[in-house]
């Protein structure tokens, strides 16, 4: 059964096709989600086995984020116009092939290149999984389907660090990536057999490939300049200037193209602009925190990968249990207070992490910080998503969500690139417990300060949404790496609207 832009989707949640559709979309999104949460745990072993420097470990994280953040909006548009199932399956296969290359990588350079390829696959399958649900399920079942998808995805996020730590301790870090291959071999055939094809119409529209390339190039060049700043290479200032130039060119292209990937007029909404600035602050701090904490627990505290992977599990569990309630509370009292209190709690949790040193006790030192930070994340993530959607017209809700998601990932990769530079980490710092501990103790106050800036900005700029604004469909959250994506909205009965975003 093919579903086009002019047909009302008719798949029901309780039908066999509906169950298979949920299975394949959860499997697909979980592949990308698992890699984004478990790679940090594997970094010390990767560095030891491949004799990698700290900058190579930074690139292991950031190469994936550069292509994912730069191309995720384009990935959603490709699915809408070329066929959502087709692009989703291509993304799954691409991601699995890149994962296989990661798992077989003989050197840091090959691993970094493969991670960049993984990001391209992630940019295709991440928005595609949710778009398939939106396009395929009957309107009466859509909210339930989205809820099941986000709930099972959250469970995957909770299992990820535990599974990653077990794999690193057991078969080895390469299986963190190789595990994606059997998942893809299960996911792609199910999608081809049971998932209806759909498209959003507007096939005449040109894709903003130039804008996507310029955006990813700007992120890559700026990231390179930050990571290699202490190397003394003459290429550093050149790439820094080139990165700024690529960013300016990206803005120019988006302003003048008839069909831009990121239409700049959406930032005419002061609320949308303000909440994205808050997003940059929050997720920059999160990106730096999770990157450094996974290393701190292993390099300094002496935790095994399994123990380090499960150390932050309470944060994800709190999100799964309480994110929907947090969103409901924000609807009653408005988002301003949650978006102010949440970052402040996260900042307090990061400062509590300063207690984590050599031979740190999990119950006395790690757990209090994790619980406080988890409470802060619960308080802010759902209201953040709701405020983003409320700041634009309903037809642009998917676009707004995609921009916000990309902004969060870009903030995280810049933080991973910049924090070692700002804290004086040398290329071999992660091999020395004393050196890394000293840098970690300089980094946590910096991350906390960025969160405080986000809280102040939220208090000064965020206001109660207008009546009748769009509300999030994803009520359950489990991802710590970016705000949840929201599906594109319908603007007519049984007809896909003009929105071309994830």
Short description:
The chain is 73% helix and 0% strand.
Describe the secondary structure blueprint for this structure.
Elements: H1 16-50, H2 54-82, H3 84-104, H4 108-136, H5 139-169, H6 174-178, H7 180-194, H8 209-227, H9 235-256, H10 270-300, H11 305-311, H12 313-333, H13 336-352, H14 362-390, H15 397-422, H16 433-461
Kindly list the characteristics that best describe this protein.
mainly alpha, membrane, 73% helix, 502 residues, transport, disordered N terminus, Growth Hormone, Chain: A, disordered C terminus
Fold and architecture overview:
The chain has 502 residues and is mostly helical. The protein folds into three domains: 12-195, MFS general substrate transporter like domains (Growth Hormone, Chain: A), CATH 1.20.1250; 209-260; 266-487, Growth Hormone, Chain: A (Up-down Bundle). The chain is 73% helix and 0% strand. The chain has 16 helices and no strands. The two termini are 22 Å apart.
Basic shape: globular
CATH topology title of the largest domain:
Growth Hormone, Chain: A
Mean of residue pLDDT values: 88
Based on helices, strands and strand pairing, what is the structural class? mainly alpha
- How many domains is the backbone divided into? 3
- Tally of DSSP helical segments: 16
**What is the highest CATH level, the class of the largest domain?**
Mainly Alpha
This entry's quaternary arrangement is single chain
What is the CATH architecture term of the largest domain?
Up-down Bundle
Our measurement of the CA-to-CA distance between the termini, rounded to an integer number of angstroms, reads: 22 Å
> Quick one: CATH superfamily of the largest domain?
MFS general substrate transporter like domains
Query: Number of DSSP strands?
Result: 0
Instruction: Report the helical percentage.
Output: over 70%
Radius of gyration equals 21 Å
InterPro entries: EmrB-like (IPR004638), MFS (IPR011701), MFS_dom (IPR020846), MFS_trans_sf (IPR036259)
Subcellular location: Cell membrane
Keywords: Antibiotic resistance, Cell membrane, Membrane, Transmembrane, Transmembrane helix, Transport
Pfam family, one: MFS_1
